[in-house]
Amino acid sequence: MAAVNDQQDIKREKILEASHQRFLHYGYSKTTMNEIAGDLSMSKALLYYYFPDKSQLYIAVMRKLATDYLKTLENRLNTFTNLKEAFTFQVNTHHEFIVNNYNFFDFFRLNEQNLPETIWQIVGEVHSAELSLLSNAIKTEVGRGAIKPVENPEEIVDVLMDALHGIRVGAISQKKTNFPRKEHLEEIHTKKLLLLDIFIKGLMY
Amino acid sequence: MAAVNDQQDIKREKILEASHQRFLHYGYSKTTMNEIAGDLSMSKALLYYYFPDKSQLYIAVMRKLATDYLKTLENRLNTFTNLKEAFTFQVNTHHEFIVNNYNFFDFFRLNEQNLPETIWQIVGEVHSAELSLLSNAIKTEVGRGAIKPVENPEEIVDVLMDALHGIRVGAISQKKTNFPRKEHLEEIHTKKLLLLDIFIKGLMY
DNA sequence: TTTTTGATAGTTTTGTTAAAAAAGTCAGGA
DNA sequence: TCCTGACTTTTTTAACAAAACTATCAAAAA
Fold this sequence. Notes:
Chain A has 9 helices and no strands. Chain A is mainly alpha-helical. Chain B binds a DNA duplex through helix 1 and helix 3.
């Protein structure tokens, strides 16, 4: 029966991939179950055999993206000895992640209606995980005596993450258009690195 | 004829005040010209005697708020000798400004439709003015040798302002609700001061 | 001449309803 | 257990009439 489950998992994977592409290009509400089924040459009913409903499918895609992203972070973030390298890695990874799934996140950012409630929970989970990872980076750095002691690393990281997010939002809202163009992303990335540079210096002795 | 113009100006002021209250409480699209006229016990047609249309009226209110705000900044920002004090004053003033006009800005932040195009121009002007003021603060501080030379103060300030804005947005989007509750504003303010503290240390030698 | 208004024209928003599209179900076949 | 076509239910869209609102203007009032 392991084989059977493997088969199921493979098909589930396929569905997730196809869905990801659709959601990436057209967003949640402009993607229909028929289209996904069509892409996979299967019946719509089969989708409902594997996933309870559309929102659960979307959430599954999102969860996959999130865990992949967090796995990348976790794998390397604990190996860094230098705080700046660790933070830079986080910013770079995040940037890459956003670029790769550019439309996906733009769609669910604001304008989309009818988004399943649970995605905010996932966003929260990712945020917590990032917070925890970066806080640990600070703690070990403090332990090594490289930066001055910090009474509350989580608070520091929280502020930093909000600030980094603000760089993105700021660059967006300065243009009349509500969505960030792809060409802005590089500018945003540069600004983020600048902020990071100053911020980390501010944590030093 | 100076007297006549004075009278006109006074009435214009009254209209602006009443409009401000309405826009503050109900936003642009939920405020009608009839309501404003009713508040002032005048006919709606008279409003059109003083202002060409609704959007110009809104813009006039906004411009008044903006210039008052900038005047407050300008008056004191050039007198500071200490960079941190200058920045802190900016953050405090901005915070106070937002608190006082809480609804006004929440309304035009995103959800509002039909907002006159020109308000984004005003936002841009305010942003530029703040940028210029804070950049000057940095320049004089560099001139005094208190912090290390900066090749591009505008860039630094730009990043800082985006970061500060991110604190606000971040605190908002963490809650399910799309609007920041008033009780969040204090938390936001505290976080901003923390960020400012670290950031300025990062600019020092 | 300047300020004000009631009446009204023109436009946008809202509410309604029927048709179309999409989500979701199910009995039954391989 | 996996899969499908046909079906039911829910949601979205389109069309359009009613209501609300913006904006105008001729004329009264100051």
